[in-house]
Design goal:
Helices cover 52% and strands 19% of the residues. The protein has 428 residues and is an alpha+beta fold. The protein folds into two domains: 238 residues, no CATH class; 97 residues, Pdz3 Domain, CATH 2.30.42.10. It is elongated and about 90 Å long.
């Protein structure tokens, strides 16, 4: 799910002025925050691995860039933004510059920007009325509310360009790559005994180029005799001799490996990267949109309810790998992708940004799309030469509460499935 993107000012709780804080105290608090952040990062790396460090920091950066989109466009539009914070909960550190307080809070579960007057329900100081969100032009309101999603799509596009320009376009390589190995309850498989590793690229088998057909023929037709394999590992060719054997339930000789055509990356120029990024963006956006439509459709909701109540149905859906996931599952996908390499990780970041960009534009409060919908509705209802029409947001609140209740149940169901049944690793 997305994080909160804007926060309305409380009607009866005007911002209290911050107590005076010396420069020394500000520096000391900032130093303590940096040391504490480094310590937490080191602890996460020690207990969960560097993949989780990369994922957590990537998500935090994405969230704060989303908020920066709202903040920058609000400032540019002349609106009054009083807070820009990383995290929620107790305040760890903050500093005021002009009318805005910048800071960090204890729970790094998101971030927010406080823009005054996000809805007509807010009670504001008369001096703040001209700079409130609701009193700006329709174009400015739509821009500020959409800025977070615009940032997500820009990030996805930039990541796609960088991936295609610096890493290259994926295509089938000349080798077969070892993608998985069987494990036995007792003893080792022939592949394990010979020293094969996941990621090895087969160059030849018994002196012949390694193709799917030649590998299968040499291994299954070995009759238990040693097979000479040349694999590329770390840029070096290594000769490995492995002896296939028959496993219980199988009639042919096997090494206990799985392999697939290796993927290689062909470098491309900047113009090619831009064109390829546009194509990739369209493909991912259309597939993500289709996935959301299905997830929120009657059949998708029925399937979700069935999976939550039936472990067998949940296991089958997970095995097929067709389910949308919650943020819990998305974080696991990102971690698996990081371990698989730069291109899979960047690909998952692109997918995450596009997903958040689409989700945030659903036309219902408190999501960004809800503010866009209200601004456009008021513009349509305003007659030329008349005072601007104001939507009665209070009448909409029962629908908002119902939507939020539905969304919480939906997310809870997805999180339960991700935690109880896990997510399959699509990267081998």
């Amino acid at each position: 799910m997305s994080v909160a993107v804007v926060e309305a000012a409380a009607p009866d709780a005007p911002d209290a002025p911050l107590p005076a804080q010396s420069r020394t105290e500000t520096v000391l608090r900032l130093g303590a925050l940096i040391v504490g952040t480094a310590a937490v990062t080191a602890l996460l790396a020690t207990t969960a691995g560097w993949a989780w460090v990369a994922v957590v920091w990537s998500v935090i950066v994405i969230i704060m860039l989303h908020e920066l989109g709202h903040f920058a466009t609000a400032k540019w539009s002349g609106m009054k933004a009083t807070e820009y914070f990383v995290g929620f909960g107790p305040k760890l550190w903050s500093i005021r510059r002009g009318e805005t307080e910048y800071g960090v809070k204890a729970l790094p579960l998101g971030g927010y920007v406080k823009i005054l007057g996000m809805t007509s329900m807010e009670e504001l100081d008369p001096s703040d009325e001209p700079r409130s969100f609701v009193n700006q032009s329709t174009s400015k309101r739509v821009l500020v509310a959409s800025a977070g999603s615009i940032v997500h799509f820009l990030l996805a596009f930039i990541l796609a360009i960088c991936a295609l320009w610096f890493i290259g376009t994926p295509r089938a390589g000349p080798y077969q790559q070892l993608t998985g190995m069987m494990t036995l309850a007792h003893g080792q498989t022939p592949a394990q005994a010979a020293g094969l590793r996941v990621g090895d690229q087969f160059v030849s088998v018994d002196g012949r180029p390694a193709t799917p057909a030649s590998l299968v023929a040499a291994i299954s037709g070995s009759k238990g005799k040693p097979v000479a394999l040349v694999v590329q590992r770390g840029g070096k060719d290594i000769t490995i001799v492995a002896t296939p054997k028959k496993f219980a339930g199988f009639t042919t000789y096997k090494l206990g490996i799985g392999f697939a055509t290796a993927t290689v990356y062909a470098p491309t120029g900047l113009l090619g990267a831009i064109g390829g990024a546009g194509t990739l963006m369209w493909q991912v956006t259309s597939k993500t949109g289709e996935a959301f439509v299905h997830a929120f459709s009657p059949s998708g909701l029925t399937s979700l309810a069935h999976q939550v109540t039936s472990p067998k149905a949940a296991a089958q859906a997970r095995a097929q790998g067709t389910n949308t996931v919650s943020m819990v599952g998305a974080l696991q996908y990102l971690t698996d992708a990081f371990k698989a390499g730069a291109m899979p990780f960047i690909g998952m970041l692109i997918s995450l940004n596009i997903s958040l960009g689409i989700l945030n534009m659903l036309p219902m409060l408190p999501l960004d799309g809800g503010h866009v919908a209200i601004a456009l509705y008021e513009r349509i209802r305003t007659r030329r030469g008349k005072a601007r029409y104001r939507a009665d947001v209070a009448k909409l609140m029962p629908v908002v509460y119902a939507f939020m209740g539905f969304l919480l149940l939906f997310v809870a169901g997805k999180m339960y499935l991700d935690i109880a049944h896990g997510v399959s690793n699509p990267f081998g």
